[in-house]
Amino acid sequence: MSRPLLALYGVQFAGMLVPLVTLPWLARVLGPAVWGQLAAIQALAATLALVVEYGFVFSATRLIARSRHDAVSGEAPPRHVEIAAAVLGAKLLLSAVMLLAAGAVLLAVPAFREVPGLYAWGVVFALVQGFSPLWYFQGVEQLQRAAAVEVAGRVVAAAGVLVLVTRPSHAWVALALQATALGVATGLNVWRMYRTVPFRWPSWADAITGVRDGWSMFLFRGAVSLYTTANTAMLRVFVPSAQVAHYANADRLATAGKSLVQPVSQLMFPRISYLIHHDPAAARRTMLRSLGLLLALSCVAAGVGIAAAPWFVPWFFGAAYTPTVPLFQWLLAAFPAVAASNVLGVQWMLPNGMDRAFNAIIMATGLLNVCLVWLLVPRYGAQGMAWTVFGAECFVTLAMLGYLHVRRSTSRFRKADSKS
């Protein structure tokens, strides 16, 4: 298990921590106004990418994992060919939906029309990010090489930013480098996948099957983005780009910390999905160990980060970004709730088939976040957004705990009633 875990941490390191190398450089070189605009478009691109990615990192991974032992004579299982065709067909269909959504946002938000070239590169970045085939390599638990390709692409992009982005007018270069490097990495990994799985051009039926199979996980990913990724983009609707820069700084640092939780969940998801059907007791023990470990790590990380923020943030970003400090501290305070909800939801509810309840909780949290944004941000600006995120993360964890407690109590009552 250690090698897949290291591979997943490599992807997370490249996706979240490697950009931290360029973050202080961009903040200083671009200045708060331009950096805030770039950060808002990057956040929007990450949100749009979810339309194409569609939650296949969970739904398709689960399908691949369940059928990976069906191979005959070293060939890919026929089911893998069907899944790959369905996912490709769905992604092609969803790409058109994403492009329409991007056009609608551009027309609706004047702030994004100020930088059309930057916005266009953001759309390209969303498209290539959405086509990543890591869902397949996670499902067959052969992630190391695919992860290495993505890590290399992101490292090359970061190096290019440090060399080529030297003034505010170069903001588009940073996004272009990221989109190009990730596009090459995605193309290489797609080629590697189809060396194992025979290529089959998807039919309309394949595309519809893929959309249907991934629907519940898309609801999850989309709703989660409403209180995570999309917040920086939504903030730009209400406040000047300089305020967005302060929140984006805090969010990027906090997201880098939270990203340390995600590899464990991504690794445990196919493993617990397998154990649920073969050894439920072992699945429960695995989940509880993961919960204890991640809660302990998140509490330590939050405490250290909150104490260090007043001196670390000005040193990292520069004195002009001192308003980032309280925003960062509020986002750090939510770390334990993030870790708990990740384990309870991704590692337990989803493998146990509680998709409907899980999605209901996540969607309710997303709606709560949007309501709090409209209530707090116009009055309190970026500080209101930080309060909103803290409240949403606490709500989702309490809702999951409540649901699982009621479900377990009901199950015990039914067993006792059947015995009597």
Explain what this protein looks like in three dimensions.
The chain is mostly helical and 420 residues long. The chain has one domain (2-419). The chain is built from 17 helices and no strands.
Quick one: how many beta strands?
0
SS-derived structural category = mainly alpha
On the 0 to 100 scale, the average pLDDT is 86
Please estimate the helix content.
over 70%
| N-C termini distance | 44 Å
Write the layout of secondary structure elements.
Elements: H1 2-53, H2 56-67, H3 78-108, H4 110-113, H5 116-130, H6 134-139, H7 144-164, H8 171-196, H9 204-226, H10 230-238, H11 241-258, H12 262-278, H13 280-317, H14 324-333, H15 335-349, H16 355-380, H17 382-419
Helix pairs in contact: 1-3, 1-5, 1-7, 1-9, 1-10, 1-11, 1-12, 2-3, 2-9, 2-12, 3-5, 3-9, 5-8, 7-8, 9-16, 10-11, 11-14, 11-17, 12-13, 12-15, 13-14, 13-15, 14-17, 15-17, 16-17
Keywords:
mainly alpha; 420 residues; 17 helices
What's this entry about, in short?
The chain is mainly alpha-helical and 420 residues long.
